[in-house]
Amino acid sequence: MRRNAMLEAACMVFAEKGYAHATVDEIAHRAEFGKGTLYNYFEGGKEDIFFAIFDEIYDDFRHFIEASFTPEKMADCPVRDLFREFITSCFVFFLDRQELFMMLIKEAHRMMFSDDKRKATFFLNHRDRVVQALAVPLDQAIKRGEIKPYPPRALAHMILGNINGCQMQMMLDKEHGGCTHTDGASESADFLSTLLFDGILAKPVSSALIDS
């Protein structure tokens, strides 16, 4: 319970101040613990807390993917409907924690391309596990003939990348008085699902025309 309280306090401070301006003193004060107590749980201070938050977020997201594509759901629902529901939930989850996620994404990119291989490996390993979690239902859908036989991991990368891109646009729309949070998630999920499953061509192009 103490550790969770510290992580919750850190999330609030990081969201408000950004990683660079957040301090261990403020996190400890917000969690209502002494700084020494905080270091008992996170010896590396602010950086260890940051990594712990990412551990929990990535773990939660992998579990969320698995819960979105259970064997029962895969058997009972069309794969397109499952992915639309999954994408909508991703957008809602992001918008509810917008400030925190923007800070986390920024710091993750900075650390991923730093000279510290330990930090880069940390984020790359987490991303790989998320990609693999999404590749599993995609592979099942491919084997059942529901989607084209493209490499599942490449598809997972593409879907996650498009979700991130739409999230950034939704954030900008929200800041400029655009759609409400639920409407924005639903409309963006409709758009992205249509794009992913139908493509952007107005009419199918025959293979003969392509070959010519």
Q: What this model shows, in words?
A:
By secondary structure, the chain is mainly α. The protein folds into two domains: 1-43, Orthogonal Bundle (Arc Repressor Mutant, subunit A), CATH 1.10.10.60; 47-198, Tetracycline Repressor, domain 2. Helix content is 79%, strand content 0%. It contains eleven helices and no strands. The protein has helices spanning 2-17, 24-31, 35-41, 46-68, 71-76, 79-96, 98-112, 117-143, 152-175, 181-198, 207-211. The chain is elongated, with a radius of gyration of 20 Å.
User: What is the CA-atom radius of gyration, in angstroms?
Assistant: 20 Å
CATH H-level name of the largest domain... which superfamily? Answer: Tetracycline Repressor, domain 2
Helix content bin:
over 70%
The top-level CATH class of the largest domain is Mainly Alpha
DSSP strand count: 0
Overall pLDDT confidence: 86
What's the CATH topology name of the largest domain?
Answer: Tetracycline Repressor, domain 2
In the predicted model, the low-confidence regions spanning at least 5 consecutive residues are: none
Count of DSSP-assigned helices: 11
Strand content: under 5%
Sheet with the most strands, sense and barrel status: none
Compressed to H and E, one letter per element, the order equals HHHHHHHHHHH
Give the structural class.
mainly alpha
Architecture (CATH level 2) name of the largest domain? Orthogonal Bundle
Total domain modules: 2
